[in-house]
Automatic annotation (TrEMBL):
Transmembrane segments: none annotated. SUPFAM superfamilies: Lipase/lipooxygenase domain (PLAT/LH2 domain), Lipoxigenase. InterPro entries: LipOase, LipOase_C, LipOase_C_sf, PLAT/LH2_dom, PLAT/LH2_dom_sf. Residues 116-676 form the Lipoxygenase domain. This is Lipoxygenase. Pfam families: Lipoxygenase, PLAT. It comes from the Bacteria. Keywords: Lipid metabolism, Metal-binding, Oxidoreductase. Residues 3-117 form the PLAT domain. The lineage of its organism: Bacteria, Pseudomonadati, Myxococcota, Myxococcia, Myxococcales.
Amino acid sequence: MVTEYKLIIRTGTRLGAGTDSTISVVLVGTRGESAPHVLDKRFHNDFEAGAEDVYTVSTEDVGEPVALRFSNTGPGAGDDWLLDTVRVAAGNRSWFFPFYRWISGGTTVEVLEGSARLPQQVQSEREALARRAQLQARQAQYVWRPPEATEGLPGALDISDKRPLPKDELYRGLTEGSYEVVIAKTLASIKLHLPMLAKTWNGLVDIFDFFKGIEMPKLAQRWKDDLEFARQAVQGINPLHIQSISRLPEGMPLTDADVHGLLSANETLAQALEAKRIFLLDFEILDDIPMYRKAGADGVEERRWAPASRCLLYLDDTRQLRPLAIQLGRDAEKAPVFTPNDGEHDWLAAKVYVRCSEGNAHQMVAHALRTHFVAEPFVMATMRNLPDPHPVQKLLRRHFRYTLAINEGARKGLLAEGGVFDDFIATGGPDKGHLQLGKKGYQRWKLSDNKPRLDLERRGVLDPAVLPYYPYRDDALPLWDALEEYVGGVLRHFYRSDADLAADTEMQRWWADLTERGLPVDKLPCRELTRVDDLVDMLTTVLFTVSVQHAAVNYLQYEHYAFVPNAPLCMRREPPRQKGVIGPEDIAEMIPSKSQALWQVAIGRALSSFGDDEEYLLHERGWREEFFQEPELAAIRDRFVSRLRAQLEAVNARNARSEVPYTVLRPDRIPCGITV
């Protein structure tokens, strides 16, 4: 019996999405396949970017369609076609084929029917074959790097001239172009407005001239203030270090006389510690990490420093945090403890060194490692082992867009030998201290460290009674809870019992691939993937990491780093070893050089940029790409959106009362994944 199938085909909207190539289709169903049909309407420009084209295919009844096999006859990359979706209708029946991927010129691709199914729910051998064929093709594209290439770090995608980044992963431009273009434009704008800047560099004065052509960070007017320094510990670029302590750190000699007048009336250090009014920022991870040291062509050696510093903060009677004491090293004999009772320049220098320590730890550990690079193994395992109709693939896919591309860009442009980090951060350079720092952070890390409630509890700052003002905590926890409910709702819709997960052969291969090549099993919450609760916990952590956590440690980079004296990423002099010898001219000589400052401003601006096609957790008019079509899943998504809207209202209300708003964890400004 001949059946008419109506195909409603939507082409993507990205630049170059359309094609003039000849496109043909074969309908693949449970009863067989149609002959190839060329999709071409007379006097019509088919498959234009953003267009929706309708075609009718008459063929023998193929049964339940399980795939559409598209062939693109174009000979080159210019003929590539970005297919978004296809809706197929026959009589009163309809099927949906979401794709949102490229079909390259000269290739044939099967687009699978979009109903979400576990492999044990597949009802026909033809559908099972289509799933296996899709994974075989993906495994040829998404190949793990050799273990020796990622030793001491998470597994990653292997990219070479012979096997480039898959086109589906290619990085899109930012609003002002690619992030490399943002860097170039920023450097050009700064240099344009500094033609008369003297060769003599006075960083504390001349830095204001950098911002004649670009926006001035808001903190520039208050960066020296102690309250501002403490504020950055709870809502700055790296709000993950502050911890409550009940005793002084070992090797940090501090007496009541040292802090005279800095505590409440008649309060001793011991009493303040017992009352949980003392907090610690500790960057001991920098201990033993080699710093930049290299002789130039003239024989002059350049050195940079970022000490393993630590800082005590005090919660005063007004319930505000203030820095109380700073030690720029671990050796009490070589590293004196500075307090606000010391000279103005001593105290300012001490705070600047702490911010430099924080910056180096932030860039390589909190940011690069604990978001970008620990996410990559999950992207790889998902692309290699879960076909498009698998519910976990559908759940994760939007949150993994562009992550492989930006990670590769960071490896080549920032981290590689001769990369940008060698130009201006303290741990860069010939000894590759920044890579050693990343490996040291990875050695200590487990996925559970990225769970905010556990992390806050471990640091003793979960309770608002202990630390009243902590915007990162107060914004992150409701978002975690919303994500956990959303992920749990989706997964438990398909996995009605632990037995369902154990029987999911595709997910078991995902787990084996992840643990054999991506992340050692001892860094994950379970040794075997047999409990749905463990999968919910793990995937919630992954989605929180790539969205909320990445936003927290990334999108304040311009505000935090661009005004370089606030947080220099290298210091050009060794930390002071005695008090009373620093003057204002010394601080200007300590902070980055003009060229280093240029890089720091440009990189901060680029990494704080949003894409022109950015998709946010709470996205206006809904997410653009919808992978689930089941009504029950729509209800789960709508509940998630409702919780995000309520959280946005709460954030806006608090920020309206705040002297310094904290906006990076607004749900409508948190990208779904790591895109920069």
